[in-house]
Amino acid sequence: MTMELVIRMTQELFVVALLVSLPALVVSLAAGLVVSIFQTVTSIQDQTLSYVPRIILVGLTLVLTFGFSFQQAVAFMQRMLAYAVEAGS
């Protein structure tokens, strides 16, 4: 296995990880921002208010993007197996 192949595999790993996690991270960031603004405007300082909407929205996002995430994971695995076969021969 050459160094170039290892670098290419690592780069693909990070790209796939970013693609799979980005929707949940963006939704969590947006929900946290909206809840923080709401808490500031209404002077409500309940700690659980910031967690419950995030958990619900991130869970919903994970369910809605599961198909895309699964496709990315399968394609990544196929590419890694092709690299393994390439490196073995």
Query: How many structurally independent domains?
Result: 1
**Largest sheet report:** none
The 3D shape can be described as elongated
Q: Unreliable stretches, pLDDT < 50, 5 or more residues? A: none
Give the helices and strands, then pairings.
Layout lengths: L2 H40 L5 H17 L1 H23 L1
Helix pairs in contact: 1-2, 1-3
Describe this entry's structure for a reader:
The protein has helices at residues 3-42, 48-64, 66-88. The chain has 89 residues and is mainly alpha-helical. It has one domain (3-88). Helix 1 (3-42) crosses helix 2. The chain is elongated. The termini are close together. The relative contact order is 0.14.
Structure summarized in a few sentences:
The chain contains three helices and no strands. The protein has helices at 3-42, 48-64, 66-88.
Task: Describe this protein with a few key phrases.
89 residues, mainly alpha, 3 helices, 0% strand, elongated
